[in-house]
Write a structure and sequence with these properties.
heterodimer, A: alpha/beta, B: alpha/beta, Rossmann fold, eight-stranded mixed β-sheet, four-stranded antiparallel β-sheet, 10 helices, globular
């Protein structure tokens, strides 16, 4: 029985804009187990990054608001904590890695300084020890000549190196959970492989990872379980094996069919028609109605609930049971 | 007849240091590249950041200055053309950029954007509106788009507008610089299909630049792999992907995650590409190559030709 590290329950996040208020995350529930890599996949605007930022309460106020839900971590609801208590968790028990490492690292401070700061904020130790630990973690993160790199500024490092620094900074406090938001999107594919290895090492040492990406290839390589998000909702959830071999939701199925694969015979791609609805214009029933090849009347008016299939595989579709056993 | 022939092209960027901006070195972005594209062909140019693929595309279009070499378009040297000749060429040689938004003038509405080129070349039909609607339909947009502005559209739609504009002049050749990289996955497929459809309809040829080998394999018939300013492998895309000749091509293929297939990667490429201002001696890839031999460190590999394939590697026997 896997131990649940994080439990998100019915999370609702809205944003106020000039055009009105919209729901970026609509009643999202999921858990992250200890020692697993959970993938959250979806395209622009599906709500995956907002969900991740909500866990660490990094949603910009006052425009953004967590309207509803609970985020249970180590038996405490993070949404109930005050600023001081939340700060003790951020960068400590729960760390985050962002997509653009250059933007997340301070351009004005040397790497060593930033690493030491990250550690001293949470652990009681002296500067000398912190410096030594920082060097150790840079080396563990695969940075050659860590001793010298401690004195470098972020701009002196390549994208891949900067990402390693960010990972080292996230690890130095030995977090229980790392939230990685598109950690390899800005990196070359050969460097991406190196970062994958690093993330796998992290998982082996017991840290869980919530891996957010739009790239199904990354999900395939890295994740034990997968959440598929579309237009503010989780539409499918299951083990990576189930999601890839027997996808049940039409969106997941469409996504898998439309990905350009390294193919030897040039075939036209099977694209999903249409586009993601505007969050101000979400339909009455299923958000995927306009683009779904299987849509029927009920879908137009009723929001489908999660249908539970085998092995903790769930899909929010009225015909999930039929689709799960149909070949792509 | 070759639509495009690039001969020994070099584009170097000076590195200037000090108060007097003295040139202390060069970034050798494109360092001796030759290639040919025939009518109806789509050549994929693939490589990672800093390999020079974008600079190569931009140099061909005259957006960067070549240091050495030629680019022949239908046999005429693009770099030796008069302003008048260059203007005429623009009708036949078009470009689509990576960022769909910055390619569109935010102050112009769509009908003006897509007919601007037609007006320039006297190709606009008497009925401007119906001509514009025809162009929009070709790329899957409808007449509602005519009087709207770029900021009102999604990334995929904006890219369609860029494509409509490029194709409006019925060019022979389009340089596509990472045209789908900024788009969502499900939209990528739509745009890739659009490229394929238009190619068939108008007998277009493309130079398709991308870092994504999977995208390239969906759309091109030939592929050239670039590393640190040079082409390391060239050939029909199916042959190169199923049987790569160069270790770097092999590494790129290995690195691509393929959903459904568990890849056993025995050798993961270590380190990163060196700086193009100081390329390694001999074969530029030798610092990361899992199969490096003594000769690789000392001599630049010569081209090994095997049918339609070319590989620049000492260890490739054909």
């Amino acid at each position: 029985m896997k131990r649940k590290l994080l439990n998100v329950e019915k999370l609702v996040v809205t944003f106020k804009t000039d055009q009105g208020v919209f729901k970026a995350v609509d009643s999202v529930s999921f858990s992250v187990n200890k020692g697993e890599i959970l993938g959250m996949v979806g395209e622009s605007g599906c709500g995956k990054s907002v969900t991740a930022m909500s866990i660490l309460r990094l949603i910009p106020l006052p425009a953004g608001a967590i309207e509803n839900g609970r985020i249970i971590f180590n038996e405490k609801n993070l949404l109930d904590l005050n600023i001081k208590e939340m700060r003790k968790i951020r960068g400590n028990a729960i760390s985050m890695i962002f997509q653009e490492p250059g933007a997340a690292l301070s351009p004005l401070h040397r790497i060593g300084h930033q690493m030491v700061e990250a550690l001293l904020l949470h652990k009681k130790t002296d500067k000398k020890n912190a410096w030594r630990l920082a060097e150790e973690w840079l080396t563990k993160a695969g940075i050659p000549d860590a001793k010298e790199k401690m004195f470098a500024y972020p701009y002196q490092l390549s994208g891949g190196m900067q990402q390693r620094v960010m990972i080292a900074m996230a690890l130095i406090t030995k977090p229980e959970l790392i939230i990685a938001d598109e950690p390899t999107t800005a990196l070359d594919v050969t460097i991406q492989l190196q970062i994958f290895e690093l993330l796998r090492d992290i998982r082996r040492s017991g840290t869980s990872i919530l891996l957010i990406t739009h790239d199904m290839g990354v999900i395939w390589e890295m994740c034990d379980r997968v959440l598929v998000m579309y237009a503010s909702k989780i539409v499918e959830e299951g083990s990576a094996g189930d999601i890839f071999s027997s996808p049940a939701h039409p969106y997941t199925r469409g996504l898998l069919k439309s990905i350009p694969k390294l193919q030897v015979d040039s075939k036209r791609l099977q694209a999903i028609s249409g586009q993601v609805p505007s969050p101000f214009d979400y339909p009455k029933g299923c958000n995927f109605y306009d683009r779904c090849p299987h849509a029927f009347d009920r879908c137009k008016n009723e929001v489908p609930k999660q249908h539970v299939l085998e092995n903790n595989h769930k899909a929010a579709c009225f015909i999930a049971e039929k689709l799960v056993s149909t070949n792509l | 007849m070759n639509i495009l022939e690039v001969i020994d092209l070099k584009t170097w960027f000076p590195i200037k240091r000090g108060i007097l901006s003295k040139t202390t070195g060069h970034i050798r972005a494109v360092d001796g590249v030759s290639l040919k594209i025939k009518k109806g062909e789509v050549l994929g140019l693939v490589g990672e950041s800093g390999c020079g693929k974008t600079t190569l595309g931009r140099t061909i279009l005259g957006l960067e200055n070549a240091r050495e070499g030629k680019a022949l378009f239908f046999g005429k040297d693009l770099f030796a053309m008069t302003r008048h000749e260059k203007k005429k060429i623009r009708k036949r040689l078009q470009i689509i950029f990576q960022d769909p938004l910055s390619s569109l003038n935010p102050g112009m509405n769509i009908i003006d954007i897509i007919t601007e080129g037609l007006v320039q070349f006297g190709m606009l039909e008497k009925d401007k509106i119906s001509h514009a609607i025809k162009l929009l339909h070709e790329v899957g947009l409808d007449k509602n788009a005519l009087y709207r502005y770029p900021h009102e559209f999604s990334g995929g739609q904006r890219q369609r507008i860029n494509i409509a504009r490029a194709v409006s002049l019925r060019p022979d050749f389009i340089v596509c610089d990472e045209p789908v990289s900024a788009l969502d996955v499900s939209v990528q497929a739509q745009i890739i299909n659009l490229f394929l459809d238009l190619k068939e309809k108008y007998s277009l040829s493309y130079l398709f630049i991308s870092h994504d080998l999977s995208v390239v394999s969906s759309i091109t018939n030939k592929v050239a792999v670039m590393y640190l300013g040079k082409i390391v492998e060239y050939g029909p895309v199916e042959a190169v992907i199923s049987n790569p000749g160069h270790p770097y091509t092999q590494a790129l293929i290995d690195a691509v995650p393929v959903p459904g297939i568990h890849k056993k990667r025995i050798k993961i490429l270590k380190g990163e590409a060196p700086s193009p201002s100081d390329p390694p001696s001999g074969c530029r890839f030798h610092t990361r190559c899992p199969e490096t031999k003594k000769i690789c460190r000392e001599q630049e590999p010569a081209e090994v030709i095997s049918g339609e394939r070319r590989v620049w590697c000492h260890l490739y026997k054909g």
